[in-house]
Amino acid sequence: MANTAVSDTATQTAAAVQIQLRLRLPLLWLAILLLAAIVLPDRVWNTLLVGIGGLFIVAYVWAREMARGLHATRRLRYGWVSVGDRLEETFSLVNRSELPALWVEVVDESNVPGYRAAVVRSVGAHQHDRWRQTAVCTRRGLFHLGPWSLRSSDPFGIFSVTRHYPTTREVIIHPPIHSQLTIPLPVGQSSGRVRAQQRAWQATINAAAVRGYQPHDPLHWIHWRTSARQGALFVREFDLDATGDVWLVLDMQTAAQLGQEAHSTEEHAVLLAAALAARAVQQNRAVGLAAYGRTPQITPPARGAGQRWKILRALALVNADGAADLGRALEDLHSIARRGAAAVIITPNGTADWLPQLVTLARRGVQANLILLDRPSFGGAGNSAALRDAVWRLGFAAHVVRREDLGQPLEAQARRGFWEFKVTGLGKVVTVRDPLRDEATA
To answer: Which of 145, 200, 236, 382 is the right S-S partner for 375, CB 3.0 to 4.6 Å?
Structure first.
């Protein structure tokens, strides 16, 4: 299921309603009959003129009623979604006019892969209709819901009525998190809960001393006992966490990638980074991200659930479209990572050209762990095991991850099914559909 279930109503203010003439032939008939009634007065022409004119007037009045009375809203059920989750919207269509809407088409311009909200409904006078549109999220990335519009017509199809809803809603589909990943996080410069020599600029679990209050210090840092004793405000000072920051470094060079879509090294690198980021947050570690695609995604290290969502957002947006190789990425990390930090470098690169930059990074005091995506298992050439052994000889920890090590591909996870529930008349929640039972009986 989605991480957070929230309701969000799309903008209900529509742009100006448009009434357009769809069929010009009745208008042409009306002009011809009017000319014939003037030039050749006859009861036949007058009867046809009244009939066609009345039809034209009825069609226009009907279209005006549709323009005045048809309104719709859409509500997104889940605000945070990951690959494999279900994206669900509830649409409401209201007809406040005196005439029925025989057909109403919802025209949607959303670009979420696999999601189609375009439907045709009908609604009577002073009635409303409600339905749900769902889709399983199969691809991470930044997408949008809307703009969209309602399209209807009179029963004769002479006039068309269109009501536009121009507002769009941004939807970010995050990568899923694999909780069974066995690769450990690096510790950093030292291990254990020891006191650091520097003071942290943000709150950590180690409070070492107090100092005078400064403007913009958070109020929850105030040490009230010392403040009461000294007659002035004092705040706590925090030690740096001795385990050090963790940087997740993704090699997003296009030339180094292998595979397609869910079976690609790009998606596996993103899955590994998401799992390691979630574990670092759970362990109260400061974790950051450096992904070097065409548009680098750099997220400085921080703690807390908010940092987890920042990293997941960055991972949702990253693409393996970069030109910079891993060596240049390590040079950039050399300039932004502070001494004592640890770096987890995830790469499908099968060459050893970047090993000198790795050694330089270690000399600066940044501990590096390597996760090498096994090239043969992704259908490429090279020997990732031999590269791992070369990294070991340099004194760095390294792991080789094969394509099958992360379990099912993303499209298989998206077909797992979902729990569905309903509330009975007595207020009891019962299961309507159990995906595990469906799989057992399939």
So the answer is: 382
